[in-house]
Amino acid sequence: MYIVLLGPPGTGKGTQAKRIAEQLGIAHVSTGDMFREAAASGTALGTRAKSYMDRGELVPDEVTLGMLGERLKQQDAQGGAIFDGFPRTQPQAAALDESLAKQGKSVNIALHITASDDEVVRRLSGRWLCPNCGEIYQEASRPPRQPGLCDACGASLTQREDDRAEVVRQRLEKQRPARDLLNHYRGQTKLVDIDGEQGVEAVTKQLADAIRNSTQEPAKS
Ligand code: AP5
């Protein structure tokens, strides 16, 4: 099964993708995580991507698609994947369709998570991440048991550079899913809107219900 998770920054894509990937036993493919890993390793791709991420802008399609193409070839993505933050543009969506079609596969469902700007800013200003196992925390809604330490593996938690208030504003301005991207999946009757303003468990349930329905009948938007 191939699932696309769309939505503005901070609406819970990473939190939910991790859960769904574990539940369904499919790969979690996050282009944001891949860019951050490349930037931390100091590769040419990472350095280029970082210059866009620091300004709250999308990384150009040719960079993103080159990296994604390599990721799709890996073994763990052969049985299915949930794409977290990819695609972000209609050309990226078309390229994903083409790439999967070559293997006789296709995107099964595109889940579009939404939440208000106020809620997103509140969430991102209190987000903490585990650099070791990828757990995501939020000071108010999901604090770690011990401040600054990951519940799952005990590593010291960090914050993302692009969660600074001024960059979050840029991301919200420049990175909402574009109409042509949403229409790409709407036209394929694969788009389902999800209310991301609810609590984590309630959002997970909405996503699970939508995925289950998609295996039984064509998705409605
Ligand atoms: P990426 O890492 O994908 O960032 P993003 O899309 O801005 O999304 P976030 O990771 O900030 O938020 P999220 O929706 O995953 O929310 P989370 O679950 O963490 O991309 C980073 C950058 O890379 C981009 O800015 C861009 O430059 C570049 N990039 C990436 N992909 C690209 C592509 N395809 N093309 C071009 N450029 C690309 O949750 C946020 C917080 O809220 C957490 O603290 C969490 O604990 C909390 N939370 C989550 N759900 C809830 C809930 N229901 N209730 C209360 N709190 C919640």
In a nutshell, what does this entry contain?
With 221 residues, this protein is of the alpha/beta class. 46% of the residues lie in helices and 14% in strands.
Write out key terms for the chains shown.
single chain; 221 residues; alpha/beta; Rossmann fold; five-stranded parallel beta sheet; 7 strands; 14% strand; globular; binds BIS(adenosine)-5'-pentaphosphate
- Give the SSE string: EHEHHHEHEHEEHHEH
Quick one: how many beta strands?
7
In spatial order, strands of the major sheet run: 2-3-1-4-7
The amount of helix comes to 40-55%
Q: Main beta sheet: strand number and arrangement?
A: 5 strands, parallel
CATH class: Alpha Beta
Computed CA radius of gyration, to the nearest angstrom: 17 Å
Oligomer: single chain
- The CATH architecture term is 3-Layer(aba) Sandwich
Quick check: average pLDDT? 94
**Which small molecules are bound?**
BIS(adenosine)-5'-pentaphosphate
Tell me the strand percentage band: 5-15%
Q: How many domain regions?
A: 1
The CATH topology is given as Rossmann fold
For this structure, what is the CATH homologous superfamily?
P-loop containing nucleotide triphosphate hydrolases
> How far is the first residue's CA from the last residue's CA?
19 Å
Q: Shape, please? A: globular
| Low-confidence spans | none
